Amino acid sequence: MKKLLAILLAGAMMFALTGCFGGSSYQVKNATSDEEAADISAKDYKKDFDGLQQYLLDKGYIYKFLYDENNTEKPRQAMTSEVYADVIGANDGIRYYFPDGKSFIEIYDYSGKQNDTAKEVLAEIKENGKFKPIEAGDELTGVISESGKYLIIYNPKNKYDYDKITDELKNW
Q1: CA distance 140 to 87
Q2: Can you give the pTM of this predicted structure?
Q3: CB-based contacts of 114: which residues, under 8 Å, 6+ apart?
Q4: What's the confidence (pLDDT) of residue 34?
Q5: Higher pLDDT pick, 172 / 29
Q6: Rounded to whole angstroms, what are the CA distances from 79 to 38, 58, 76, 89, 107?
Q7: Which of the pair, 92 or 39, is modelled with greater confidence?
Q8: What is the rounded CA–CA span in Å between residue 46 and residue 122?
Q9: What does DSSP say about strands 77-78 and 65-68: parallel, antiparallel, or unpaired?
């Protein structure tokens, strides 16, 4: 019953947050320029959940905040939200939205002991590269890190170049 409730709440949250980023008057503020991002090396980051997120943020692949043109100091809209990681057997997880408000990735931590749900989700992704986290939701694409400890999922229907992000999983 708790899992069903968590799944329903996650789905409702997804739909509620999807409409929050529709305005085009906002822009992304990258932490680094493209030139600086090219010099960032994965070997300089801890090989843990926080290190993976920080690396992707520093490279400019994901964002924490959306800024308006008049006030670059204060974020106008958070680009992250919590997820119910335990629903898919993960230890931790977070969702990062992209400026279109429709595209997102979720990063999950499977570095601890894996329960049966975790094993099922990871096995399905290894076999098919996809899984359906909730019955009424879209089928999502999943990419597992080389170590098998981290998972990134996303909806391939959205128009975003996920290859840069998922290619980085070879470093984790």
Answers
A1: 15
A2: 0.76
A3: 89, 122
A4: 66
A5: 172
A6: 23, 15, 10, 24, 14
A7: 92
A8: 23
A9: antiparallel
